[in-house]
Amino acid sequence: MVTEAASRPPHDLPGLDPRFSRVTAVPGSGLDAGLTRDWHYLDTGDELARLGVPVAGTVLAVHGNPTWSYYWRELLTQSVQAAEAGAADGAGDGSRVAAPAWRIIAVDQLDMGFSERTGIHRPLAQRVADLTAFTDALSLTGPVISLGHDWGGVVSLGWAVDHPAQLSGVMLLNTAVHHEAGKPIPAPLRLARARGMLAASTVRTTAFLETTLALTTDSLDPAVKDAYRAPYRTAARRGGIGGFVADIPVDANHESYSELDRIATAVATLDLPALMLWGPRDPIFSDYYLDDLIERLPHANVHRFEGAGHLVAEDVPYADSVLTWLGDNAASLANPGSASPTPREAFAAASASADADADDSSFVPLWRNLDERADDTTTAVIDMSTRGQRGPQQVSWRQLSDRVSHIAAGLTAIGVKKGQRVSLLVPPGPTLTAVVYACLRIGAIIVVADAGLGVKGLTRAVRGSWPDFIIGEAPGLTAARTLGWPGVRISTARLPKVSAATLGVSYSLRDLITLGANTALPAEPRAEDDAAILFTSGSTGPAKGVVYRHGQLSALRDVLARHFEVTADTGLVTGFAPFALLGPALGTRSVTPAMDVSSPRTLTARAVAAAVEASGGSMVFLSPASILNVVATAGDLTDHDRSELERVHTFLSTGAPIGAELLASAATIMPNATPHSPYGMTECLLVTDITLDGIRAAAGGAHTGVCVGTPIGENLIRISALDSDGAATGTPSTEPGVLGEIIVSAPHLKDHYDRLWLTDRAAARETSVETDAASAVSADGSTVTSTDAATPDTDEARDSTNVPASPPARWHRTGDVGHLDETGRLWVEGRLPHVIVSATGPVAPVGAEQDVEVVSAVRRAAVVGVGPHGLRQAVAVVETIPAAKRPGLASPELTAAVRASTALPLVAVLVVPQLPTDIRHNSKIDRSRLSGWAERLLAGGKPTAP
User: Fold this and answer.
1) pLDDT tens digits for range 51-82
2) What is the pLDDT of residue 863?
3) What is the 3-state secondary structure (H, E, C) of 738-772?
């Protein structure tokens, strides 16, 4: 037995204040009965006492393997800094008392860090007992919040469930408390535990340690890496690393399995505040384990930091999140058991609340038209898209209703239950429509991520939502198998046995129909039940899952139907995939034109005409990218095509606001249609609407940007003014001419973001909303949702006098900037991150871009900032006519013309063959990418494409 006394870490470790370091003797228990063990730990208690700051309680932080208490250094430092700031603020005028702070104690587990080397194998139950002995030695009383990472998460939870009288909350970074029987443990751990490898990789060499230190998004600073190595310089000091790996309960026969099961079971009964901060790029503790923890602690605040990995504390500012959460929950954490309702009760109440009436009296589900038209043999859906099929597919209302019912029964037969998630990897068309309505009918939550996100984006979306089932065609199922996406796999077509086995497919839709033949459908979901997770485009950062409830989806259907007067005879031609699914809900036939639905630019004018003819449709939905090609191919139209297009009475550009010129060009193809350009985003698909005549009426004034009209129906809009630093800090109001962030409210506004607590927190902060005669909104703490969401997508206008007596209480910060004019019309001027903060204040880019695009040699323009924040200079990046062959500086003549076109000073004019756009709509210019490219080019970089 090799033992070695505890010691203290060197004083020069980066980020670690040596004043926090402590060593204490702890009477042993269990295997250590009758012995005393020396523990090293970090403790902010003395610093808080020196500052005279009251202490709310203790955060007990437990590291994993092969780290040590150094992992928590940022939390210790920031908590003391916050206490210092609070103490100074409290002493400012002598009338205020500093707010209580949380003492942070971060332990080094025995055989780890700088604690004693015992030389004894310490299974999980012993480690939980060790931690109890440590807290007993410190006479640690409540309230205590446990905090753990990796296997320290398990140990901390073991302590937590054993100390209910002291515990007031739990916090976790990537960890696990359960592993499904028969499922292999993660590959890195299997390798480390392989015969002959355990000691070699964990003890005799530093392989396991070095591999773990490489599990960060960006390489750790060499000095930080060396700090992690400091306690483990010799093999004799690395025994605990091997011991932890050996103690992983791989099956029910393992000595620690029963203890892990005890902890997992008890965790599911905890009814205290909980926080989970997660790095999804973790090869060890994947989202599989997060999903399990969420099932046990459904009330927990959860945030997945996209791009972060196993050492999440090194990848993201986790300490800020922890301190924010402690502040948000200060009252209940300091007084455990005092919360009424309890966290679980509050979660259940929130899940049961609805925007619709609690009795669902006004709720009409999306599938109701399918039920009512179950005997209707007329056409419901036509698919003319180019996906290798022989010709257009036509499905009647009866066929669609039967298909939905049969698939719904089959899903029920194989165990799909209300609230379970079903990821749909099916292209738009009749099959997707049937599957969507079948899932909704039984209360399953559909997960929809656009194929335009690309493989990486889809992987992030699917794995992030962690579906229980995946329904897909062969390409999607192949990706699911190759990339390890979760979920029981169901193929849309029956596959050969070998192919099904290779792809891990358990059922086909035909199998479901057979299995569900004698299965009754469950009770219908209610308005307040979650219905869908729709992913944003990813054009403004990683795509986010937007959660809609059934009531909100039905409200979207209703506002669309009322505003555009959709009837059973209307007929929809949908060149914009999201709206293709709404035809059955609206009770009108819909057709997808001949096009590659994942590439809007493949739609032609003749394809639109053919779709109108096939469906008799009088309403056409197109995305801006598809409009460009439709206008470009208008010369191919025959007289018959033009005759068919004359029957269209409503035309909508959905996806992003477009200018009058492009809208007018499309209008010449559909001469009897009223062109509309709605505005919205994934979080609120219809916000405002404007017609071509409305855009023309708004033109020529003093306003800049794209006019998107007035709010639809009961929708409301406010503007939060930008300050001199470009932040939207102003009180939301309807004051005209104020540049700021656009804030919206609507009955069909999304419910929340999926597993993004920080985003939702910003989205749900209390904000006063100015009262005005038009809206009668009170400043009574209405909730404003804030996010770096997606950008324009949607729809309607309303009479400003038609205001409900009780306007919606929920608000959403769109991340778009713009202003309202004197008539209440909204003008969109760009994205909040794209605002150029110059020495004279913030400047939105769209107005200057519109000026530049007037120059005859310019096809499209983007205005971006270069230089330090607060002193940024404007640069115009343009596509030219004819297109430039290579990127670089514009000619002197073009530069002069562009500069003369706008009042905004431009330090440079650059040309590119094509401006980079987002991946879904092919229309939103990626200004952030262009900004970085322009800075590099102007600094002397190579003139490569942006």
Assistant:
1) 999 999 999 999 999 999 999 999 999 999 99
2) 96
3) CCEEEEEECCCCCCEECCEHHHHHHHCEECCCCCC
Residue 669 lies in a domain: no
Instruction: Please name the amino acid found at residue 262.
Output: R
- With vertex at residue 566, the alpha carbon angle to CA 562 and CA 568, rounded to the nearest 5 degrees, is 135
d(CA 229, CA 925): 46
884 assigned to some structural domain: yes
- Find out whether 508 and 493 touch, Cβ atoms under 8 Å: yes
End position of a domain, from candidates 805, 829, 853: 829
**Same structural domain, 35 and 78:** yes
Does residue 259 contact residue 231 with C-beta atoms inside 8 Å? no
pLDDT above 70: percentage of residues in the chain: 90
Q: Which residues contact 1 (CB under 8 A, 6 or more apart)?
A: 118, 119, 120
User: Angle at Cα 816 formed by Cα 327 and Cα 704, nearest 5°?
Assistant: 140
Name the domain boundary from 467, 495, 525.
525
Helical (H) or strand (E) element with 645: helix 639-645
Q: Which domain holds residue 890?
A: 836-938
Measured CA to CA, the distance from residue 174 to residue 311 in angstroms comes to: 8
User: Which residue type, as a one-letter code, is found at position 149?
Assistant: H
Alpha helices per DSSP H over 20-99? 45-51, 73-90
DSSP one-letter string for 410-448: HHHHTT--TT-EEEEE--SSHHHHHHHHHHHHHTPEEEE
Tell the residue number behind the tokens 């009436």, with chain if given.
357
CA dist., res. 548 & res. 681, Å (int): 13
> CATH code at 825?
2.30.38.10
Residues in the chain: 946
DSSP secondary structure code for residue 281 in this structure = B
Report the CATH number that the domain containing residue 319 is assigned in CATH.
3.40.50.1820
The DSSP symbol for 364 reads -
Mean pLDDT of 362-381: 94
The pLDDT > 90 percentage for the chain reads 71
> 866 and 802, same structural domain?
no
- Distance in angstroms (rounded) separating the CA atoms of residues 847 and 849: 5
Taking residues 181-188, report their average pLDDT.
Answer: 74
Q: Determine, yes or no, domain membership for 664.
A: no
What is the spatial distance between Cα 762 and Cα 760, in angstroms, rounded to a whole number?
5
Distance CA(660)–CA(50), nearest Å, equals 66
- Where does 791-876 have alpha helices with state H? 845-852
853 and 821 within one domain? no
Task: Note the pLDDT of residue 626.
Answer: 86
Does residue 836 contact residue 865 with C-beta atoms inside 8 Å?
yes
192 assigned to some structural domain = yes
Q: Say whether both 841 and 906 belong to one domain.
A: yes
Supply the pLDDT for residue 654.
Answer: 78
Same domain, 420 and 327: no
SS3 9: coil
Peptide bond preceding 593: is omega within 30 degrees of 0, i.e. cis?
no
In 250-348, at which residue ranges do the beta strands (DSSP E only) sit? 274-278, 301-304
- The answer to whether residues 204 and 56 belong to one domain is yes
Count of alpha carbons within 13 angstroms of residue 402, beta-carbon side: 9
Mutual orientation of helices 474-483 and 454-465 as an angle, nearest 10°?
70
| Cα distance between residue 327 and residue 333, in whole Å | 9
Work out whether strand 740-745 and strand 810-820 pair parallel, antiparallel, or are unpaired.
antiparallel
CB 546 within 8 Å of CB 750: yes
In this predicted model, what pLDDT tens digit does every residue of 251-264 receive, in sequence order? 889 999 999 999 99
**Statement to judge: residues 891 and 816 lie in one domain:** no
Nearest to 715 by CA among 753, 675, 742: 742
For residue 413, the model assigns a pLDDT of 97
End-to-end CA distance of the chain: 62
Residue 874 and residue 819 share a domain? no
Beta bridge partner(s), residue 621: 574, 652
**Cα gap 148→248, rounded to integer Å:** 16
